[in-house]
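Anyone opening a protein record will find just a pair of labelled lines. A complete record is shown below as an example:
=====
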Amino acid sequence: MADVDTTLRLAMTTVEGAIGAALVDYNSGMALGTVDGPGGLDLTVAAAGNTDVVRAKMRTMEMLGLNDGIEDILITLSSQYHMIRPLTGRSGKGLFLYMALDKRRANLAMARHQLARIEADLEV
């Protein structure tokens, strides 16, 4: 099991094309940890903004009566992918991993697979 900072650094070094990563509490919108890369993203702003995305999707699923969990949420920009992965373990309830990727360098399938593996090793 790895702590938050170690986990985020691991994500930045093992996920090809990573330009920023954060662990976020979607109840408060606060980033519990961030690691910035070459993208120069303001990860505290990204954390707060993506909290709204997660909350909206959870509300929508509830209104639709969907009794299912979110594996990940993908936002595709012209030059970047933004991945949001709500944590599923008991200790991660209310948290999500956020990662921004350079679209030209990233392999989206591998990034999803690696983020799931990283989540499994995270100790919160």
About this structure: The chain has a mean pLDDT of 90.
